[in-house]
Every structure is written in C-alpha cells, then in structure tokens.
Amino acid sequence: MTAADLFTKGVPQADIARELNVAHQTVSDWHEKWAVGGKRALRAAGRAGRLPKVTPAQLAKVEKALQRGPKANGYPTDLWTLARVAAVIEETTGVRYHPGHVWRVLRQMGWSRQRPARRAIERDDDAIERWVNERWPRVKKNARARDAWIVFQDESGFSLLPSVRATWAPRGQAPVLRHHLNNWKRLSMSAAVCFRPDATDAALVFGVQPGSYNDEALTEFLTELHQHLGGEKVTLIWDGLPSHRSRAMKRFIASQRRWLVVEPLPSYAYDLNPVEQVWGNLKGRELANLCPDTISDAAQVVDEGLCRIGRETQLCFAFLRHCGLHL
Q1: Euclidean distance between CA atoms 81 and 102, whole angstroms
Q2: By CB atoms within 10 Å of each CB, which of 67, 207, 212, 325 scores lowest?
Q3: Could you tell me if residue 176 is inside a domain?
C-alpha cells in the first residue's frame, strides 16, 4: 500500500512512517505534496511506498560486488556513493532503491562510512609481511641476546599552520581558525620510542630544533639517545631516508658498533613505526586547531605534549600494538 492510499484512509503520519519504514519527516513532506497535488504530486517526488526488500542471498551478492571496489564495478574513482551503491544493487538483484535509502542496506551488511588509508603504489606488501613474520622475530631475539633496547626512530615537523581537526559547533556555523599565513618558520622533531626487549619498560626520547634533521643533527640525537639510556646497547629501527643512508651516517654507525645495531624498515612501511602514532597523538591533542602567535609558542606546546606521552609508558606499548608488533 502506498503513502497516498494511507493518507486517503486517514492513517496517522506516525503509523505511516512505521508501516513504510521511513522517517517521520519524510512522511510529513509527502503529506504536504499529497495535500496540494494528490497522487500525481507524490509520483513526481519519487517513491512513496514501502521500501523493496532484498533477500539474504541477494544481500550476499550485493556485498560481494561492493567488496570488489568501485573501480571494478566500472567507476573511475575508489569512492562508494549512495547513488553508486543503489546502481550496483539494482544491477545485481533487480531491486531498485532510492539513493536516500541505501544506507539502510549498507548498515544491514555492517558497513559504515570510513576514511580510506593512503598507501604508496611503490609499497611492497609481501616484503612488509615477510619483515613482520620473519625479520622482526630475529630482531627481537638479537636484542634480547645483547640485552639491548629496541628503539624506533622517526622525524616530523610543525609550523604556524594549524593541524585542523573536527570540533563541535552549531549546525551550519563552521568554526574559523585564524592563523598567521606569511610566516613559514618551521621546527623539526626527532623522536625515539624505546622498549626493553622483555617488555618491562618503555621510554620516549625526543628533540626539537629549527630546520630539518640532517645526518649531522641525527648523529647528535643518537649520541644523546645513548646517553639518555644510560649508555646501554641499542637496536635502532628506522626508515630509509637519505640522511639515514648517507656516507657520514654510515661512518658514524660503523664507529658505534660496540653499542649500536641498525635495522632498516621495509620501504613505505611507515605504519610499522610506532613513532608515527606519537605524531598522530600529538597533532590530535596539543596541536589540534592550535593557532600560535610565534614558533616558540608552538615549540613549548610540542614539548609539553611529548613530555605527556613520555610519562605514559602504557601508551608507548599501545602504539607498538597498533603497528601489529609485539615484544
């Protein structure tokens, strides 16, 4: 039975909404159109009856088609819109849905709106899987045998441009962040998340300086790291940045073999480095929507945020688990 038939019978709008499985506001909009133009007005507005149902078997076919991805279904981008999903449902099952109701089908399948993660085309997932399954256990075994700290290191930076994050505000009134635009001063951060190989302790060591971390600045940071860890042995895990592979850095590493072993991460495997979680936590908390007047003000906030993370030992272990790595 259509909404027009139910309106004619005088059925309350709340009952119609339940009967047709639509929102109360939708029924109210239909009623306004029906009161003015009758059934013809409702036909012009689109479907005004019970939503068609797909069977569990049809739903499984729809999900299988959607899991292939938008490009495999003939679309130019990897973006599922409600209109595209509606088209796939109709093509797969013959059942036609209005795009505005497709979210019900997606929710029934356990799907939700998600922001995609970015991955470099050059990334070798097989090599990364081998590192996790084969190399990482050997790294841990070697560190335990040497009684060495397992240390992940990475660099990042910040400027006067705010790290924009979603916040609450009245509907239709987007907040405005007013910040300096012509001041391009930038500070760089170097951080090392350090773990005892038996998982009894963790620490965060960091440094902040103007400009970037070149091989000279990194050798100073590693020297200070060694001192901070009481002169104990270290297994250093980092990516393949040029400053990590320069001749000067290779000479420094060779000269420190009595305490330092270096293990490179696979290419484009930043998600295996828990320091990336440090940056995300900092930029999502202390630096979120921060509009400092000077770079010194920003540096103070960064220092406070990194100190907070360093005090939370369990947070460091959580960052490691987030990378899918365990001691």
Answers
A1: 10
A2: 67
A3: no
Q: What mean pLDDT, rounded, does the chain reach?
A: 88
The count of domains in the chain is 3
Of 286, 55, 45, 85, the C-alpha closest to 189 is 286
Using a pLDDT cut of 90, give the percent of the chain over it: 55
Spatial separation of the C-alpha atoms in residues 219 and 190, rounded to whole Å: 11
The tokens of 258 are what? 């009595």
The CA distance from 324 to 266, in Å, is: 15
> What is the 3-class SS of 217-247, one letter each residue?
HHHHHHHHHHHHCCCCCEEEEECCCHHHHCH
pLDDT value for 48: 47
Distance CA 63, CA 109 (A): 7
Residues 19 and 76 in one domain: no
Buried b (16+ CB within 10 A) or exposed e, 121-154: eeeeeeebeebbeeebeebbeebeeeebbbbbbb
Q: What is the number of other CB atoms lying within 10 angstroms of the CB of residue 69?
A: 12
Q: If you ran DSSP here, which 8-state letter would residue 109 be given?
A: T
Secondary structure of residue 99 in the 3-state scheme = helix
- The average pLDDT across 287-299 equals 88
- The residue that leads in pLDDT, 136 or 25, is 136
pLDDT of residue 96: 85
101 and 149, same domain (yes or no): no
Residue 155 belongs to a domain:
yes
Range of the domain at 300: 125-163+183-322
CA distance 291 to 297: 9
The answer to whether residues 306 and 206 touch, using CB atoms and an 8 Å cutoff, is: yes
**pLDDT at residue 321 is higher than 90:** yes
Predicted confidence band of residue 135 (pLDDT cuts 50, 70, 90)? very high
The type of residue at 64 is: K
